[in-house]
Design a protein that fits this description.
heterodimer, A: alpha/beta, Rossmann fold, eight-stranded mixed sheet, elongated, disordered N terminus, B: alpha/beta, Four Helix Bundle (Hemerythrin (Met), subunit A), 434 Repressor (Amino-terminal Domain), 3 domains, 20 helices, disordered C terminus
Chain lengths: ~300, ~450
Amino acid sequence: MGIFSKIGNAFKKTKAAIDNKIVAIFSGGELDDEFYEELEMVLLSSDVGAATTDIIIEKLRARASKQKLRNEDDVKQALRDIMAEILSESEPPVDEYPLVIMVVGVNGVGKTTTIGKLAKYYTNLGKSVLLVAADTFRAAASDQLSGWATRAGVRIVKHAEGADPASVVYDGLQSARAKGNDVVIIDTAGRLHNKVNLMEELKKVNRVAEKELNGASYQKLIVLDATTGQNAISQVEYFDDAIGLTGLVLTKLDGTAKGGVVLAVVSENSIPIKFIGTGEGLDDLELFNAKEFAEAII
Amino acid sequence: MAMFGNLSDKLNHIFSKLTKRGKLTELEIRQAMREVRVALLEADVSFLVAKRFIDALSEKAVGSEIMESLTPGQQVIKLVNQELIALMGNTASKIDFGVAPPVIIMMCGLQGAGKTTMCGKLGAMLKSQGKKVLLVAGDIYRPAAINQLQVVGKQAGVEVFERGTQKVVKTVNEALALAKKQSFDVVVIDTAGRLHINDELMNELLDIKKLAKPNEILLTVDSMTGQDAVTVAEKFNQKLDITGVVLTKLDGDTRGGVALSIKAAVGKPIKFCGVGEKLGDIEQFHPERMASRILGMGDVLTLIEKAQASVDEKEMARLEKSFRENSFTLDDFLAQFDNIKKMGNINDLVNMIPGMKGKIGQLDIDEDDIKRNKAIIQSMTKRERLNPDIIKASHKKRIATGSGTSIQEVNALLKQFYGSKELMKQFASGKKKGKFPPGMFG
């Protein structure tokens, strides 16, 4: 199954829903106010958010005044183009090795699972991977990561529960240097972005990682749950303020979730999407492609 | 952020226009209602629920009530609030213990909603009510999920039943036999997170239900969920006929529109809320408070309740007196730290105050700071505490040594103290009135 069909599959339901609505609201070949109002509601009900919905609609209005959009196919193509433009406004950095990746996010978005998939992804590229279990807070988090390490066949550095996460990161990076690993992936505890103390702790972990990079390139990825609503914008804002994000991973696209919130996130925060998670298997991780993504949505 | 910080700002914006204009035409109300609808959608209220909500509201608003009113803005806000409460259910709902024990509670939900953590919280809460609780490890898929339940069970001081990754139904069956034999009052069954469209796993839940005949089937939902929440709740409800909903991660800054959506879509009560990382961070759901939260009016009720429970009233009266008389000393400052600690996280409290949401950056007080500041004050003499003006450099050195801090930290504390004192002087003289909600500070 190709990448496109996989994403397409994940989005099947969304696509059908929006499709039907566009057909239903497009009447008489004219984009009237009623059409735009209905389109607004369609986008809002796909978690796109009010501000970004306004942007999309303004762009569509501008396009419609320049060129005649004759039927629903024209309208859909125009919407696809607009979405792809928004989503590709910023590009994630290209991977350079040795590479250190820190994975952050709120509780329950699928950080640990994503790390298992990332381990497999980089192993498939022929890289030697080390996982660092810096979630020392959640009960049994490091056991969960160990499980993924075994499945992906990679090494893991972990401490006891309740240990200082910064010290785990320090040890992990030392160990990676000693053993010559190409990719180090750091798991961090899930934290709600408005918890000042926990965000301070994350800053400290980040500072330690930065000091121990020894010339490795460093990426900081936030994991977002595709079922999340407008709060995703706030999540990205706070984490970006704290440690400076380089990209995001959108998970749980295998349900009926629309993932429309990424349009809002990318348009408001300018953080590029790097990966999307499309299932529960170890291989269900894809590099993000704005055009394919937009085509899958509309 | 979007154009508006939150739903209440948006509604306030709409209604400030209404208030200024006096009586309204039907058309104006319809326009206002459209904006309310967009605002609700922006707060993650489901598309259809928002529509239904607006229809009900319009019907009432367009009637004579509003048209003849002199202050339509106020009336509409009241109406919105009333309708929100009505939609979310009028009363707080509890677990019914009026049946033969053990009471069986089955948890279910998507991955990452917070089921396992909630099992621990329920266990701890029920134990504190004198119940004998058994947690059952029914998540045999996620790596280390059983371990996690064992750890939270230990923290909660309740027993955990697990049979590794054998068939869940078998594990549950054995657990129930044990619960009956050893007269447990409550059995809480943890289950694996699953997608509502995964038929195989949804059938597994149905099998557990058929076997255990739970008194409660609680769907655990992340309060940050967007539009998809309704689909998820509907699917779980169709399959299992759930008895209630648990909302998690409400200590975040989500606007929580999902509470409205789910209640409206499946008609089942929201029974509990997860409000923090600690096991004690579980609360009952109160629709009227949630309505205030969605409207951004602040969770004033919870704040008041919390403050009343943890602060001695006499102590409050004494503090208030010293504010007024401007005789606020370092001893009072010390007492304040204790009160803050008793009330819980200061930032949570600040968030509950209307108009203060999102301004927590200015009030970063962490527990270590409090501990350090207490040590500094406690290392002062009685005279110094009453009159900090007499504290000279040599005193500071002694205080720093005594409290295991530095002179800089002593200085910082004194600066903070003088700052607070100045602020209180302004309260007392009413200069800062209007910046804070009336009634909040006596």
